[in-house]
Structures are given as C-alpha cells and as structure tokens.
Known about the structure:
Elements: E1 2-8, E2 16-22, E3 30-40, H1 42-54, E4 60-61, E5 66-73, E6 85-88, E7 101-105, E8 109-111, H2 118-122, H3 125-138, E9 149-153, H4 160-170, E10 174-178, H5 182-190, E11 195-197, H6 202-208, E12 214-219, H7 223-233, E13 234-242, H8 253-258, E14 261-264, H9 269-272, H10 280-293, E15 301-306, H11 310-322, E16 328-332
Helix pairs in contact: 3-4, 3-10
Amino acid sequence: MNMRAIAVNPEKPEQFIEIQSEKPTPGEYDLLVEVKAVSVNPVDTKVHKGLQKNGLEQPRILGWDASAIVVAVGSKVTQFKTGDEVYYAGDITRPGSNSTYHLVDARIAGHKPQSLDWGAAAAIPLTALTAWEGLFERLRIEEATEAQTLLIIGGAGGVGSLAIPFTKLHSKVKVIATASRPDSAQWCLDRGADLVINYKNMAEELAQHGISQVDYIFCLNDTDGHWESIGKLIAPQGQICTIVENARPLDMEQLKLKSAALHWEFMFTRSMYATSDMARQGEILDKVAQLLDAGKLTTTLNETLQELSVESVTQAHAKVLEGHMRGKAVIVY
C-alpha cells in the first residue's frame, strides 16, 4: 500500500506539495506506524525557512510530533507490538511525520496517554521533551529551594505551557512566567505560575514585586532580544538554559563575572547523535503520559485542523509563524 505525504516542493520551496511513495520498511530498532495526528512546532517553520533559503533537490517531508498506531516493528524492538498506540517527537535527520505512514526509532517513542485523543496527544511530545530536558537535565530545577526563583521567558507557548506545570509538580521553586497579553497571562496562571510579568520590561516589573534577580532562567524565545536582560537578572552562580539559537555573538561578560552557567537544550540531540541514553526520551514520554492520565497535567492543544493536506499544513505553519500562539496547533487525519 502506498503512503501519502505533504512535502516541501523542490521547485518552489516556499510551497508544499502532496507526494506518494511506497510504505517504508522498518529497520531493526524502528516502528512503522500509521499516523493519526501531528502537531506543528517552530522547528518545522525554521527547517522550512532554511530549505527556502538553500534550496533542495528532492521533496522534504517535515513534521516531527505525532500520535500513531504501530503496524510493524523492527527485529530488535521489545517495548512495543503491532496495535500499540504511541506518541513521539521523532528525529530531525529522518523524513518527517506529515505522512500517512512513518518510521520512528522505538527508543524515542512513548506509549500514548490513554486519556487523550489523537490530536491532544500529538500536541505533547516535542514540547514535553524540551521542557523536561531543559528543566531537569540542564537546570536541575528539582534541586531548587522554595526561596529561589525560576523565570520562564515565553510562558504561554508550547514549551512554556508544560514547563510551568512540570516545575510545580517536581520543584519547590517560585515560578515567574512572561506573557504580553491578558489571555496569555491567564493561560500561564492556569498552569500554575506564581507570577506573570510582561517580557517587554522584565527588570522593571520584577522590581515592582521586590525581585532584583532570579536564580534560574529558562529562555524559550528570542535569545538575542532578551540576552541583555538575562545577564542583568541572573543571580550570581545562577543557571540559564535557552532553546533558541542566537543570530549574533552573545556577550558573556555578565555571566563570567557572576560565574553563571549557560546550558543549551536541543531536543533532537539524542536521536541526531544516537547517544547511549537516547532511550531516555521514551522513558520521559511514558512518565508524561502517566501525569496526563492521572489528571496532573493537561494537553496544550489549542487549535485543531482537519485532514492531512497541502492546505492544512500551510495553514498550521502560518499560525506558528504569527508568533502569538498559545499552546499548540494540531492536524488530525
């Protein structure tokens, strides 16, 4: 049986086209899945932008987040079987999930939350892994005390929407999130933020609450634009983690004087380099599924588009590019 996919058009890279190909065959660690829903992330639009700039010779299938049913397993797969429901964020070096069938390494897939439908589940993986790794493997926020503070820059986006409740569930730290609009601020408060401030003048707003510096900063948008404020606000010996690449060199003088640490979080590192601990991502997704099924966490799904098509993928990309999305946009097949 053939599979359908929506791919970047090599002749007009700003556009998508529908393509058909044979169903792929799983490698030894792979799952072949029938995709039920996908969500669109900023990484989709960034990769698309790069392809528009640099060109491509063959159609490129984007999409990484997915929820799906397993239809075949590789010879070394032990944790999944045919018929299992899974969710995952995929591997940026392989063809994406904007297709009816897809190959994913079983080690980076998790068992789909039973309490969520396909769309709500597809909204979770990439942002959950980014938030979890950034908070617990880079910042080690679980070691923070109740006297310490965490500033999440970009609290209402896909990652921030999970970083706030993850922190409240597994740390004593005070959570301060940034948001610029009333609905976004309420979104952050609903997810457990102790305080919400406007990102446009963070130092002044924090000062109004008697806060001159913070112990941890998790930067989820515009590293370049926020860098000067980050350097001023981070406490001596503080910890900073960012997920957004910088376009120009970052001045490290403030960090050097304060002996502050800077961590990078890139969710695809483990799969890209086939690290010895890449199965950790499957474990994290299973833990997140348990939190969702226990009602301790809610999906970040905010908008649903119907059917995999050139139109739905184009529309989802446009919503992400607007830059003011609360939560996630999902395409349900």
